[in-house]
Amino acid sequence: MSKIEEALNKAKQSREKGLRISSLKNNSADAESVGAIVPLQTENGEIQYKSSTKEIALMDNGNILDKNQLSELKIIHSEMTDNKISNTYRDLRTKLIQKSQGKNFIAMVTSCVPVHDSGSTTLNIATAFSFDESKTSLLIDCNLNNPKLDYLLEMEAYKGLTDYLEDNSIPVDSIMHKTGIKRLKTIPAGTARETATEYFTSLRMRELMSDLLSRYSDRYIFLDAAPINDSADTRILVELCDFVIMVVPYGSATKSIIAESIDAIGKEKLLGIVFNEKPKLPNLKLINKLKK
């Protein structure tokens, strides 16, 4: 068995066990937390933990982007004139919740075409979850060689995922940043750059994913990853997530490329395919009117 296979097996076992060590040590949540963990004493003396949605209302979201700013950044919002796009992402949200049977999860978004990134799709799916006042989203940029989320959100270069994975003294709270969107935070790719495969097979990465998922029951995690057919680390990330959404740019992928991508992901993890960049059909009535 190779080292990578060993690491992947350990990652799977760690996810199944739930690794709640960190959450048990830190049961007091501050006002910016994604819902406080409230210990409950049961009749048999066992302690259970649940997430309190009251804390979500107290979250410090920073300076909130208005609808005009969101439109300029091509981020969906509830007041869009053309609500077809936002409804499409809402439908994706519904399918994810149904598939997970109401439990929170880690979902990865990747493209099947090397020259196409999935950042915008990942951002809007996470935003759709943040529409719900009882849910929060965490967006993690795992496309380490070509990060896009800080650019899409017009954020400064902050410490992020790679910095945390390289330095054990960095706390996870220090790499989670406000986005200007209510109930949505992000972990950028980070400033350090080593071999991505080494990052994603590390014990610290596995513990981070498990802790982020298990600490708060109303937090939904989205990983933006490099194209699946062009990245070994994306294939490793498949093992660390519950679901995968694949982005297929219109007219840019052959059937064989799509089939290869599905095989690399595995049908048990693949939730669905998003076709984007589809050209708008011409308005025939307007064209006929102009001809007259």
Structure at a glance:
The chain is of the alpha/beta class. It has helices at residues 3-17, 21-25, 54-57, 67-72, 84-99, 119-130, 149-152, 161-166, 196-200, 203-215, 232-238, 255-265, 284-291, and strands spanning 36-41, 47-52, 106-111, 136-141, 177-178, 184-187, 219-224, 243-249, 270-276. Strands 5-6-4-7-3-8-9 form a seven-stranded mixed beta sheet, sandwiched between helices. Strands 1-2 form a two-stranded antiparallel ribbon.
Description:
α12 links the parallel β8 and β9 (270-276). A 7-stranded mixed sheet has the order 5-6-4-7-3-8-9, sandwiched between helices. The chain is an alpha/beta fold. Residues 17-50 have low confidence and may be disordered. It has one domain: Rossmann fold, CATH 3.40.50. It is built from 13 helices and 9 strands. The termini are far apart. It has helices spanning 3-17, 21-25, 54-57, 67-72, 84-99, 119-130, 149-152, 161-166, 196-200, 203-215, 232-238, 255-265, 284-291; strands at 36-41, 47-52, 106-111, 136-141, 177-178, 184-187, 219-224, 243-249, 270-276.
